[in-house]
Amino acid sequence: MANSRSWTQIWPCFVKLCVLNFVLVFKITALGDGSGSGPTVTAENTCKNTNYQSFLPPPYQNISQMICTPVWHTYELRYFQNGDTTTIILSAPYTIGWVGIGFSRDGMMVGSSAMVGWISKHGHAKIKQFYLRGRKQSEVIIDKGELLLNNIPAAVATNGAEIHIAFQLQMTTPFQKQPILLAFGSKYPQNHHLSKHEDKTAIVFDFSAGSTGPVSSELIQMRTNHGILAIIGWGLILPVGAIIARYFRHKDPLWFYLHAIIQFVGFTFGLGTVVLGLQLYSKMHVHIPAHRGIGIFALVLSILQVLALFLRPNKDSKIRKIWNWYHSWFGRMALIFAAINIVLGMQAAGAGSDWKIGYGFVFGIMVVVAIVLEVLAYLKKSEMRSLPPNFQLDPVGGATFPSNQALYFLFFIP
């Protein structure tokens, strides 16, 4: 085993490597932080001058007090908050099909509520609330949702090549920074079942300032980096370090140095994952308590593992056995919870099949390697137990070669 003296001889190089890795990880983290990337779009004097009195019913005709902001392509969002009432008008280009605006907790479609408007084939204006319970058409439920509409009927009308969707919400707490979804489809809803959208986007709209920041260019990049760091750190690097510690102890002291360095590199990637997750939470107020809680718990376990490296007792110490038990089982717990959390994160983010296949491939490789090495280790132990007493195991579980007398006894005895 590696002793404390040999460890102190290499710690300067180890610290340099860790510092370089911290710099790399937090550069990746900074790429995902959209706090300074690009200006927000202000609301003043940037929308078309439209006379709503000619085609919308009251109270949507009076827009003199409404704030207007271009939000996506040529979409315009007008709103006015008066006490607990919020009036919203969405204007969008239109020929046929439907146009919708959704309100989400985390910028994702699943779990959001949307107001959708269209003009039927017979020229009838339709506007309905939908609850987006899932991604399938059957999971988009009409006349359901969490938007509290007041007694003023919602309205939808066309004016030239535009459609205008107007409604009022009765809010207990006025909107501030709110993730909203914008989408349109080119087919008429059949029996109030929406066709798949042709295009969509998600933005975080600041109702208190009338500005908007694109989720697609900033927060989605942060979310992507969050997932990449999690898969690299928790899904690849840390399991490799654990495999080295369990199956390569006969390569002493090389296994110890590799295990320590690899695990610390994986820890910095895991730390970067949590930092990005906290940034996402502060910007989007993402309500995923299980994912957030498990992530913090796994980070605490990994911090305890790093501390255990520096508090490692000598192998002759009375508490070394307790330390070994604590270090191995806390490490296993951290890896198990991290794997669960990666799956939860992909599910919450609505990750595509490429993410699932990619992580499934990495996870599968780790499991197969661990199973193969475990079987080989078991066969080796079984083989060693079946050898004559002259064959003894070394202190770390590897085979000790027999002495010259034993070789003579094996090969030259008649």
TrEMBL record:
Domain named Cytochrome b561: residues: 188-382
Keyword vocabulary terms for this entry: Electron transport, Membrane, Signal, Transmembrane, Transmembrane helix, Transport
Subcellular location: Membrane
A UniProt-annotated Pfam family: Cytochrom_B561
Annotated coiled-coil segments of the chain: none
InterPro entries in UniProt: Cyt_b561/ferric_Rdtase_TM, DOH_DOMON, DOMON_domain
GO terms for cellular component: membrane
Residue ranges of domain DOMON in the record: 73-185
Residue stretches spanning the membrane: 227-248, 255-281, 293-311, 332-351, 357-379
Main localization of the protein described in the UniProt heading: membrane
Annotated protein name in UniProt: Cytochrome b561 and DOMON domain-containing protein isoform A
Presence of the UniProt keyword Transmembrane in the record: yes
Signal sequence residues: 1-25
Source organism of this protein record: Glycine soja (Wild soybean)
